[in-house]
Design brief:
Blueprint lengths: L7 H5 L6 H13 L4 E8 L9 E2 L3 H8 L4 E5 L5 E2 L6 E6 L7 H24 L5 E3 L10 H10 L4 E2 L2 H7 L9 H7 L2 H11 L7 E3 L6 H12 L5 E4 L9 H14 L6 E5 L4 H7 L5 E4 L1 H4 L6 E8 L2 E2 L11 E4 L6 E4 L14 E2 L2 E5 L2 E2 L5 H14 L10
Parallel strand pairs: 6-7, 6-11, 8-9, 9-10, 10-11
Antiparallel strand pairs: 1-5, 1-12, 2-4, 3-5, 3-17, 12-13, 14-15, 14-16, 17-18
The chain binds ligand PCP.
Ligand PCP binds next to helix 7 and strand 11.
Amino acid sequence: MTFHTASDRDIMDCRTTDIYFRRAREIIGRRGWDRRVVAEVSASSLPPGWSWGVLAGMEEVAELLRGRKLDALAMPEGSIFHPGEPVIRIEGKYSDFCELETPLLGLSCQASGIATAAARCKIAAGFKPVLSFGIRRMHPAISPMVDRSAYLGGCDGFSGIAGGELLGVEPSGTIPHALMLLVGDRKQVWRAFDEIIDEEVPRIMLVDTFSDEVVESLSAAQALGKNLFAVRLDTPSSRRGNMGLIVEEVRWKLDAEGYEDVKIFVSGGLDESSLVELAGRADAFGVGTSISSARTIDFAMDIVEVEGTKVSKRGKFSGAKNIYECPGCFERSLTLDDRAPDCGCGRRMEGLLRPFVQGGKPVGMPPVGEVRKKLIGEMKRRELSIDAKEL
Ligand code: PCP
């Protein structure tokens, strides 16, 4: 193995699990203590300031559970969840999934953190286009997962080639500073990009390498004319006094020279607060660290029933729980009851846990593009917010 990563085989054979699960399994086997249990995955809390999360990583979790003697219910990928709500429920002999806890949590905790951060950035940007540029901040072995989770969470694109192959989505990108420095002549680079790169690729020209963003933006507009789709401002932090005003000035000068159609794309060190500040000024954004290095979701897996008897550790609720939601007012109810309750608004609530794996066979899930589209619609319908005080 060249890189310090685990292979699919390692993960499926539970070599990426915590040793204490392997020892527990040995003890269970030796003492004949195996029992039929119900276990639930839920988050007791979310990262500071987050009041909701986006569930991701489920396609991989389904593969992890494939072929195991168990059944599972789960919220569909892309679902909005809150602390204390079960997002996965597994039923089976404990020894059949005992060692899966670590990889299962790893797959859902990190992907859901990234997807939620992407969704929050999308809201912060006023639902303007947000591209995920963050794989360079993560171990390359997980770059497809990072890009998939960012895309699922609402990003309009991502930069990774492997992610593009996984999802069948063309990766997005502009021009690296390195090419500008190598050639030393911005106009030559812009023109070369325009002449060489597939015409389907939007001409987003980098305009901050050698001189002022206004000067370089006008120069790019003059160089490419109507072929110029946008200018990218990746202004170094040492020059970023007030990025909002810089963007406004570029906008003004482009319009004044008749380049009203040229869009402004901003990237570099963006987070939720800078996106909120720039949302009304720029047209699109490239976000790296704030999405790919997002806080993970603190999911835990807990046994809640043993041979039908409700159990729980202190601090957790016992018994196999259902989570229902009103399709109209989004009111939710967490209950042990299998019958959907009526909401105070008069509608019948709907169960959020759906068949996920039956007899070790994943029931299948919609393509990530569909999940993403539905999530964005849900974020708007629910008027989900990232409260200003959180920023
Ligand atoms: C990189 C990229 C994005 C940045 C990083 C995204 O910029 O172009 O703008 O990551 P961040 O949100 O974590 O800052 P550079 O490092 O300037 O590299 P390049 O020359 O490729 O633009």
